[in-house]
Amino acid sequence: MGLFNRxxxxxxxxxxxxxxxxxxxxxxxxxxxxxGSPDAxxxxxxxxxxxxxxxxxxxxxxxxxxxxxxxxxxxxFKKQGRLVDDEFLRELFAILIKxxxxxxxxxxxxxxxxxxxxxxxxxxxxxxxxxxQGIRELMAQQDEPIAFAAExxxxxxxxxxxxxxxxxxIAKLAYRLVAEGRKVVLGAGDxxxxxAVEQLTIWAERIGAEIxxxxxxxxxxxxxxxxxxxxxxxxxxxxxxxxxxxxQTQVNLMKQLDKIRRVVGNQVPGAPHEVLLVLDAxxxxxxxxxxxxxxxxxxxxGIVLAxxxxxxxxxxxxPIRQQFQIPVxxxxxxxxxxxxxxxxxxxxxxxxxxxSSDR
Amino acid sequence: MFxxxxxxIQSALKTLRGKGKLTEANMREGLALVERSLLEADVxxxxxxxxxxxxxxxxxxxxxxxxxxxxxxxxxxxxxxxVHLLGPVDPTLHLKREINILxxxxxxxxxxxxxCGKLSRLLLENNVRPMLVAADLQRPAAIQxxxxxxxxxxxxxYSEPGAKDPVAVCQNAVRKAKEQGxxxxxxxxxxxxAIDQELxxxxxRIDKRVQPDQVxxxxxxxxxxxxxxxxxxxxxxxELDGVIMTKLDGDARGGALLSVKHVTGVPIKFIGTGEHxxxxxxxxxxxMAGRILNLGDMVGLYHEARKxxxxxxxxxxxxxxxxxxxxxDDFKGQLEKMAQPGLVQRMLGxxxxxxxxxxxxxxxxxAEGSIGRTVGIINSxxxxxxxxxxxxxxxxxxxxxRGAGVPPQAVNQLIKDxxxxxxxxxxxxxxxxxxxxxxxxxxxxxxxxxxxxRGPRIKKGTGKRxxxxxxxxxxxxxxxxxxxxxxxxxxxxx
Lengths: 359, 494
Hints:
The complex is a heterodimer.
Chain A: H1 2-8, H2 14-19, H3 22-26, H4 32-42, H5 53-76, E1 81-83, H6 86-97, H7 103-117, E2 121-123, H8 124-139, E3 154-160, H9 166-179, E4 184-187, H10 196-207, E5 210-212, H11 220-233, E6 238-241, H12 251-267, E7 274-280, H13 286-298, E8 302-306, H14 317-324, E9 328-332, E10 340-342, H15 345-352
Parallel strand pairs in A: 3-6, 3-7, 4-5, 4-6, 7-8, 8-9
Antiparallel strand pairs in A: 1-2, 9-10
Helix pairs in contact in A: 4-5, 5-6, 5-15, 6-7, 7-8, 8-15, 9-10, 11-12, 12-13, 13-14
Chain B: H1 5-12, H2 24-40, H3 45-59, H4 70-86, E1 100-106, H5 112-125, E2 130-135, H6 142-153, E3 157-158, H7 166-180, E4 184-189, H8 197-210, E5 214-220, H9 227-238, E6 242-246, H10 256-264, E7 268-272, E8 280-282, H11 285-292, H12 298-308, H13 311-322, H14 328-338, H15 343-350, H16 356-363, H17 365-379, H18 383-387, H19 394-404, H20 408-429, H21 433-445, H22 468-489
Parallel strand pairs in B: 1-4, 1-5, 2-3, 2-4, 5-6, 6-7
Antiparallel strand pairs in B: 7-8
Helix pairs in contact in B: 1-2, 1-4, 2-3, 3-4, 4-11, 5-6, 7-8, 9-10, 12-15, 13-20, 14-17, 17-19, 19-20, 20-21
């Protein structure tokens, strides 16, 4: 219950939480702001880096996450060393569960800690290292940027449940591709939701991308077809096709995604080159069902983890990676077009759970 | 893992039946399963801990009833406690005589604007004509979206294109509503993060200046552990009056609702169960408790089933059935109702773990396709043929098959299905609810509801009664055959 009480007043007292950690700081822990500098140096070398701005926004987005996770872990080990007993493991489990990684992975990590440290009095860094290693192993993946087509337009299909942030993510992705000097055509395939087409149109104007629209209530596959044709005609580099939000249990709507796939596949060999599932970072365990449903129907090649700027942690990508091998490709960290970053496991884990030895 | 919580607890408490009391020791395994199930349903961790303590206290020392399966007893306690925590029910909006202002708030993408439309539709059904106010000045095209909804429903929408200050928009809207004598105003605010102080302050300003009568928080049914944080922040800033949970038409178990209820303490008003504007239902804690525990919601299923057939049609059908006039046209009508778009999904959302096979059956493509095909076949028949299937001879059959684009066997299969169903339906017409359930069960056991399965054999009279002499003759013949078979088998034995 102690954990619960602390959490209650956290939103209002983030500074106080830092002040309350003199012991940890004297052990050598520097607040997050200090961590920005070494990372900022390698930012220009990162693919698509916009002068470290995107990194900073990722860090901002994850800061809240880091604060919570880090603070709680440090609370666990306040007295330098602590006996790894049932209570200790329960507290660790609670912290892991709060990341939305789910009972399975959290249990695995807890068992791992239990196996390695049972009955010992441990140092903070040892256990932190194990936990980070556990998450890193679960999420191990190569850097997989967008697989651009060798010839013709690269077709990217964007799918997800209602309100996950598809349209905004498309806008951000398009903004980024345009900034990289690519020509982008958007396909407004959400013909169902009121004013969804208008929403994407406004974004297209702001970004400077061409947009192909269909009539409201029209066939999204037809819009996709037109958009891809337009992209091919105008020798665009990338065509991003929006789709209406749908729940993974809606069989007919899921079949529609398959139709869109087939239609664009007939136009451009190998298309769609990427099928991105937009996942709300606040989503809980239903994210697993979403990943299953959408990868079965549309063959997802990657995840965009949207809305990672709140207190949510998006830990559900861990079981998704475990079960379906779908990598997270991008993270959305705000409302502005530039709030969009490549997913990087090291940084994700580090920002989630900074260790004092890694500074 | 177990498919359902029920199975899991059943196996954990197998040995307990009729033995003494529930103690912490003998419940441990069962309670661990309950805890896991709640976490998997996205109930926030501290809320789960609190809940488990309460349930353990309630269950401790309860005698295990001889008559009752201990697992059912434990689930019963858990379910009851969950219903208790999710309640009390209050789906009213407490409208006053003069103007009422409702404010919807929530995170981005939780479904505020769609819920505005759904609420309006519900109010229209109750003869209240609301005005929608586009106070979401953040998201591109949010204003247009509200206008489209307003046009669909035929209700006024107030917006100020190019406006920067949502507080002013809301104030002007309320003024205008008063002028026009509109009784209810719904404010659609922008989605925001609970930690974005600036935007939260803006909400507080609207709250202070416009003084809404009801502030409703819209929560995405798929939310995870973060639900506690955001609900707490919204509640602290605004003093919520109610909660609406959306997107419960899928397979999300909606455990976040328990978290939200736990931290805010305000009643849960409605749940959104579909994309269409009529998919907003008053909240029922029993159904939600079943859903969170993955036990299914049979009451909801019953309501849903009732909604498909309106009372008048039902009465007509009953009469026809009672007179033995259930024709292929009626059969088609029933099938078409089942094939209603979205219906199966809504039903699916209500069916929990224990009904998995039915769930899969409804979901299978075959089931959907076969309804369409069956309707097609019936459409290819003449009215006479629909009334009397005996008319259908091979030539008519092949004409029907060509018309519907199916092999002639499919026509046969349909006629068979229909003839199998007809006596059952006619029998059902004269029965009460219990008898009906029994009849449906018989049908189910016979595989009627399984599209690929064979139907039950229905006993039919042979049309003539055998005389004693004939029966003796048949018996003799049977015995002779048996002897011959035995003779033939013998040489093959070593």
